[in-house]
Each structure stands twice: as structure tokens, then as C-alpha cells.
Design goal:
118 residues; two-stranded parallel ribbon; alpha+beta
Length: 118
């Protein structure tokens, strides 16, 4: 809103100060809400609804809990445990793709499958 001041030769124009939004938008929306610079995300999540994941990402607390409870979440966790056991059993250190083109990778895959099913 513009306001004109006085009847001088040169009329001065005063503009209203812009009010910054408290709603976070974009890729880093959850981060800015978690830090406290914004009040909520465009989806309506507040700081109390967010948490930091194991990998360090800011995620919805409800979504995180639901995925942990789900069958898919339990299967992924079991696969991770089986992979760790197989790597230890075969004495593999460093990068080795499970089921890769190398003999080590193929051996690792068969070992992981045996631990996963047991």
C-alpha cells in the first residue's frame, strides 16, 4: 500500500514494510522449521511433529514410526542384520556390492540370503 505525503513539488512515496512468511516452503522446509526460523511447513508440520532420523535427515515423526512398525520396515532391518553377519563370516571389509559381478559379491549374496531366511 502506497501513501502519498504532503503537497510538495516532489511527492514522497512510503511503502509498507514487507512481512516475512512463517510458513516454510521448498526442499529445506523441514530443516528451517526444525531449527526454529519458520513456524510450520506448507503441509502443516510443526517442530513437535518432526524428528531427526538415524541418517541425520529431518523427517515426520509419525511417518518414521509407521515405517518402523510396518512389515516392509522389519524386512529391511532383517536384511541389514543378515548382510552384517555375512560380511563378518566371509571377512569382507570395505566396499563390496551384494550380488555384484565379482565372485566375492556373488558369494556374499548367497550367504546373506541364507542368513535372511534362517
Amino acid at each position: 500500500m502506497k501513501v502519498y505525503i504532503g503537497f510538495m513539488k516532489c511527492q514522497c512515496v512510503i511503502t509498507k514494510k514487507k512481512i516475512n512468511s512463517t510458513i516454510a516452503k521448498g526442499k529445506r522446509a523441514k530443516v528451517s522449521v526444525f531449527k526454529g526460523t519458520k513456524a510450520k511447513t506448507s503441509g502443516g508440520l510443526k517442530k513437535s511433529d518432526l524428528k531427526k532420523s538415524k541418517s541425520g535427515k529431518i523427517v515426520s515423526a509419525k511417518k518414521s514410526a509407521a515405517s518402523k512398525k510396518s512389515a516392509a520396515g522389519k524386512k529391511i532391518a532383517a536384511w541389514g542384520v543378515a548382510t552384517a553377519k555375512a560380511r563378518k563370516a566371509l571377512g569382507i571389509k570395505g566396499f563390496c556390492p551384494v550380488g555384484g559381478k565379482t565372485a566375492k559379491g556373488k558369494a556374499l549374496y548367497t550367504k546373506v540370503k541364507s542368513f535372511y531366511k534362517a
